[in-house]
Amino acid sequence: MDISSVLQGGYHHPLARKWQAQRQLTKSMLMYPIFITDDPDAKVTISSLPGQCRWGINRLEEFLGPLVKKGLQSVILFGVPLNCVKDGRGTPADDPSGPVIQAIKKIRELFPTVYIACDVCLCEYTDHGHCGLLNNDGTINNSPSAARIAEVAINYAKAGAHCVAPSDMMDGRIKLMKRGLIDAGFGNRCTLMSYSAKFASSLYGPFREAAGSAPSYGDRKCYQLPPAAKGLARRAIQRDTAEGADIIMVKPALPYLDIIGDAAQLAPDHPIACYQVSGEFAMIHAGAKAGVYDLRTMAFETADSMLRAGATLILTYFTPDFLDWLEA
Ligand SMILES: NCC[C@H](CC(=O)O)[C@@H](CN)CCC(=O)O
Ligand SMILES: [Zn+2]
């Protein structure tokens, strides 16, 4: 046999197999999506997301304390207001007494080492459930929507968020948000993580149930990317990079590994995030429950695929599990 034909010598040993990975999963790569509700003492199980709950701010120490001890380094907050008056412009989104702003302050106080990102969108706060403001005919009114999203982001930054992450997919919101952060004095102390390539996926169901954020009519196909749209994703990534995004995100993750690769190629000097969304998480659990594979092995296999594709940051509901598994 030719010398060049023999590869197995390079990975016959478990340690040598580790060396074959370009990037190994570490705790600092994990960002934990968490749901904050406006009942301060709540701890409500989310049936569609195994092991996940909606938490009130009075329970954050009980919830996050053990995870911080295990090495939790970042969270991304999703507000789930159940006792507020939703309206056409998502007024409750940046209510100073609302769950997100209260949670930013509480987590800063309780866990000063934890990096706090905030998802910025209006769908959890609008009475129509869309991610932006609407025209009279029910279509998205892009410009005022982008302006409102930027306004919410600046208010989160003022409350102490380390990072704002607009998941709305409005055109031009990154430029507006970056300009707003700079003008408000936060351009150099608040990260702008753009959900640049976010697809109109069928994998958001459990989240929408958890956050009560499904659109009251229609869908999000006119502002989230078509699943087959590789060119649009590449253009959105280039656009957001040019508009001042500090981190580029692809979402969902597993069905879009090629887009993660595109992002790494198009924005080689930016951290690349990917979001293993609620439906991916639920799907992996369902397969393990059905005996198709071992849960831990599959969770690592999916994370390794995202790292191999070029991700440097993974938003995942598996974060608490990985904190245990990476310790072992
Ligand atoms: N801003 C929209 C929420 C959005 C998807 C959607 O419901 O369209 C995601 C949150 N950023 C869902 C995330 C998930 O499914 O885990
Ligand atoms: Zn939204």
Which CATH class applies here? Answer: Alpha Beta
What is the spatial order of strands in the main beta sheet?
1-4-5-6-7-8-9-10
Biggest β-sheet strands, sense, barrel: 8 strands, parallel, barrel
- Could you state the CATH homologous superfamily? Aldolase class I
Named CATH topology: TIM Barrel
Query: Count the strands?
Result: 10
Taking all Cα atoms into account, the compactness measure Rg is: 20 Å
Mean pLDDT: 97
CATH 2nd-level architecture: Alpha-Beta Barrel
For the record, give the distance between the C-alpha atoms at the N and C termini, rounded to a whole number.
Answer: 40 Å
Q: Residue share in helices?
A: 25-40%
Number of domains: 1
Which cofactor or ligand species appear?
Answer: 3-(2-aminoethyl)-4-(aminomethyl)heptanedioic acid, zinc ion
State which percent range the strand residues make up. 15-25%
List keywords for this structure.
alpha/beta; TIM Barrel; 37% helix; globular; binds zinc ion
Protein topology:
Elements: H1 14-19, E1 30-37, E2 43-45, E3 53-55, H2 60-69, E4 74-80, H3 99-110, E5 115-120, H4 142-159, E6 163-166, H5 173-183, E7 191-198, H6 205-211, H7 230-243, E8 247-251, H8 257-266, E9 272-276, H9 278-289, H10 295-309, E10 313-316, H11 319-325
Parallel strand pairs: 1-3, 1-4, 1-10, 4-5, 5-6, 6-7, 7-8, 8-9, 9-10
Antiparallel strand pairs: 2-3
Helix pairs in contact: 4-5, 7-8, 8-10
Briefly say what this structure is.
The chain is α/β, with parallel strands linked by helices and about 325 residues long.
